[in-house]
Design brief:
The structure holds two protein chains of two kinds. By secondary structure, chain A is an alpha/beta fold. Chain A is 47% helix and 15% strand. In chain A, strands 1, 2, 3, 6, 11 and 12 form a six-stranded mixed β-sheet that branches. A four-stranded mixed β-sheet of chain A has the order 8-9-7-10. Chain A has a two-stranded antiparallel ribbon with strand order 4-5. In chain A, α9 packs across α10 and α11 crosses α19. By secondary structure, chain B is mainly α. Chain B is 71% helix and 0% strand. In chain B, α5 packs antiparallel against α11 and α13 runs antiparallel to α14. The radius of gyration of chain B is 24 Å and the shape is globular. The chains are: A alpha/beta, B mainly alpha. At the A-B interface, α18 of A face loops of B.
Chain lengths: 424, 322
């Protein structure tokens, strides 16, 4: 078994670097030219992904005896600070996990990241999964996971309220909320204390009304005062005015025992707008809905410039340091080839970033997410990662205040703009 | 706080040179230097240096990355702070919490202390129970009360809703700050009760008896004998409460993160959010400098005018003299 794995790995590897560079990487022979140690930093502190990476590293070392893969595995926050310390001194690990967006852009600007555009066949990757790692037409990392935010809902509640189909338009959505309220069910659970779950609503509405290019443009020229952004706020206010959230939502956490996830998982509320990890957290924080849990994408806003096929979310990728040896790139390709990616997807820990791997997703709901993503016509990274931290936080804070009723949609647009301008 | 520690230090060394003046004066200074140096070095490194760094950083627009700050903007961060709405909201919350502490929490602690000074059954147990919350860490207290005060499942609402007294506690802008005050009181009244009890036990019973002989009773004894003699204790407990409130952070962060909609935000929470969530380290430093100056001014003024007589050790000469 091991041998076949290694064999496959070797074959895939050879196929992968089939260009003109084989001479330098053909180090698998005895008496290889110099030992290479690859610093590999990633975030998989728990299984199944932890084992997946350990196995891949082992296989890669077996196929390339001169290479030693040295892994550093850290949890999100610790990882961020350790990586920041290293990058500030002008260095990076050889292969390391990144979320893309604003932070990766900073590292690219500092000349720390290898431009891998010409080294990798990008046609295999889905559009959505690549969005966070491409700047000015160049690619700086390969995705290993991707997900999107959408509505997770309780099918039973929808039946009880007489809602036949998940809504595809915003007015249909507001109607569904009213129907649920009429049926005596809390339509939406929201973690108001943590702010980031609330920003999903505003971000999606802005995407649907102003359109993706406008949202990206706003990040560049720091102007969020366009009427479309104010409209996004007004539509959100229209939703808030229906009082769709659970009691005390402004103080609720996300994964706490009485938080957003638990409210849905215990059948107390019908929907939550959340990323692909929602079912896992629901099962963790509450009883879980099992087969009653469904997923539908954020509805389209009538007359808006965005389409329902445009997704909002994020994932994880791997970048290669600018000074890393050739083997680093080989290792990255090895990690992301179809064979190995399929294996990772099969564990249920990640969603496919390559076309045609959707079949490997076993969970029905995650399969829906995967196919929606595979067919996505556009992709927006989480605003708090796409924009500089101060702007992202202001989006979160302002939207939270809009939901608490202390800011108007106009003020939200203005305050975000003000912070964005002062940060540039 | 720094001034508190400085006083005794300044008070002790002169005691020595008084005894043997000429012979060992130089030697004495050497000894003093040698013994003070380690503490002084630590004090400079851990107290003075961070203050200076914060003052330095507050003059820059700086995100904390990439070596030293370069974008000097003078008092820019301070003018920005003074013109921002949130600063005045925070100051309002500070005054609210100081006010409620002085008017409700401390008198409550005093009342309990007076009660537990009486010979009542199980008073040792009561003292222990009331003091216990003070021993808990702020974070544990915060987590505990976020469960108790949860509007949906919390035990507080389960007990109170039959009486029609249920509330959204921390989850509503109108009640969040009151809820935080409630938790603060729960945690700290036991501590103040304890120091009042200690203060009360230092009052000689003869004075109370003398007052009784003079015909005073109950409230009048408390008002004209006990309370004035508790003066020094009360003044130190007020001092500690105010300084604590200016720096209040942990409890608020765990309970509400300053929300909903900034309704329970304190200066320290704003500072944290700006510095560590928004990477505006220069601006956050400016807030920390403002907090420092507030604490310092309060400490100096309070000690100069309110606690002077206590610090002079004239605990018994309390009457009308200043």
């Amino acid at each position: 078994m091991k041998r076949t794995c290694a064999l496959i790995a070797a074959v895939v590897l050879l196929a992968g670097c089939g260009g003109g560079q084989t001479a330098t990487t053909e180090a698998g022979d005895e008496g290889s030219p110099g030992k290479v140690t690859l610093e590999f930093w990633h975030l998989a502190t728990s299984d199944p992904l932890k084992t997946v990476y350990e196995q891949r590293a082992k296989e890669f070392q077996e196929a390339n005896p001169n290479v030693t893969v040295k892994m550093t595995v850290l949890e999100n926050e610790a990882y961020k600070s350790k990586l920041t310390t290293l990058t500030q001194s002008g260095k990076t690990p050889d292969v390391f996990a990144t979320w893309g967006g604003g932070v990766l852009k900073q590292q690219v600007d500092a000349g720390l990241i290898k431009d891998i555009s010409s080294d990798v066949d990008l046609s295999e990757f889905t559009t959505a999964s690549m969005a966070a790692y491409q700047f000015d037409g160049k690619t700086y990392a390969l995705p290993v996971d991707i997900g999107m935010v959408g509505f997770w809902y309780n099918k039973k509640h929808f039946e009880q309220a007489g809602i036949a189909e998940p809504p595809t338009t915003w007015s249909g959505y507001l109607d569904a909320v009213k129907k649920l309220k009429d049926a005596g069910i809390t339509p939406i659970a929201l973690a108001g204390k943590e702010k980031w779950p609330g920003h999903y609503y505003w971000a999606y509405l802005a995407m649907r009304i102003a359109g993706l290019p406008a949202l990206q443009q706003a990040g560049v020229d720091n102007d969020f005062t366009k009427p479309e952004f104010v409209q996004a706020g007004q539509q959100l206010k229209a939703l808030v005015d229906l009082e769709p959230f659970q009691r005390g939502f402004l103080g609720a956490g996300y994964s706490t025992p009485d938080g957003q996830a638990a409210s849905v998982a215990n059948g107390k509320a019908t929907m939550e707008l959340m990323g692909q990890w929602a079912p896992t957290v629901q099962n963790d924080a509450g009883e879980g809905l099992g087969d009653d849990l469904g997923f539908f994408p954020f509805p389209e806003v009538e007359g808006g410039k965005g389409a329902i096929t445009e997704a909002f979310g994020g994932g994880g990728g791997m970048a290669v340091g600018a000074d890393a040896p050739q083997e680093a790139l080989d290792f990255l390709k090895f990690l992301t080839n179809k064979e190995n990616h399929t294996k990772a997807v099969e564990t249920g820990a990640v969603l496919p970033v390559l076309k045609g791997v959707e079949e490997a997703v076993k969970d029905e709901n995650l399969k829906t997410v995967a196919t929606t993503l595979a067919g996505a016509t556009g992709f927006q990274l989480y605003l708090d990662q796409a924009y500089p931290p101060a702007v992202g936080s202001e989006v979160n804070d302002s939207v939270a205040e809009l939901m608490a009723g202390t800011k108007t949609p106009e003020q939200v647009a203005q305050d975000i703009t003000e912070v964005a301008k002062s940060e540039s | 706080m720094t001034t508190v520690t400085r006083r005794p230090e300044a008070a002790t060394p002169p005691a020595r040179p008084h005894r043997r003046r000429k012979p060992g004066a130089r030697n004495n200074w050497l000894t003093i230097t040698l013994f003070v140096a380690p503490a002084l070095a630590l004090f400079l490194l851990l107290v003075v240096a961070p203050i200076l760094v914060a003052i330095y950083a507050s003059g820059f627009k700086w995100n904390g990355f990439g070596g030293l700050p370069t974008d000097f903007i003078g008092f820019g961060n301070f003018t920005k702070l003074l013109s921002s709405e949130i600063f005045y909201t925070d100051m309002g919350h500070l005054l609210f919490l100081i006010g409620t502490t002085l008017v409700i929490q401390l008198p409550f602690a005093l009342a309990i202390a007076m009660l537990l000074h009486q010979r009542i059954r199980g008073r040792a147990l009561y003292r222990l129970v009331f003091f216990a919350p003070y021993v808990l860490s702020e974070v544990i207290t915060g987590v505990l009360f976020s469960l108790i005060l949860s509007p949906e499942n919390g035990i507080a609402n389960q007990l109170l809703s039959p009486l029609g007294l249920d509330s959204e506690w921390l989850s509503h802008p109108d009640s969040a700050l009151w809820s935080i005050f409630l938790v603060m009181t729960w945690k700290y009244f036991g501590f103040h009760m304890m120091i009042y009890l200690a203060g009360r036990q230092n009052i000689p019973n003869e004075l109370i008896e003398a007052a009784k002989i003079d015909g005073a009773a109950g409230w009048r004894i408390f008002r004209y004998v006990t309370l004035p003699l508790l003066g020094p204790t009360i003044r130190i407990s007020v001092f500690l409460s105010v300084i604590y409130t200016i720096q209040l952070f942990d409890l608020v962060w765990i309970l509400t993160e300053g929300g909903p909609a900034h309704s329970s935000e304190t200066l320290a929470v704003t500072m944290f959010a700006l510095g560590f969530e928004r990477s505006q380290v220069g601006y956050a430093s400016a807030i920390s400098v403002v907090m420092f100056v507030l604490s310092l001014i309060f400490a100096l003024v309070y000690q100069r005018f309110v606690m002077r007589r206590d610090l002079e050790g004239a605990t018994t000469a309390m009457g009308g003299k200043r």
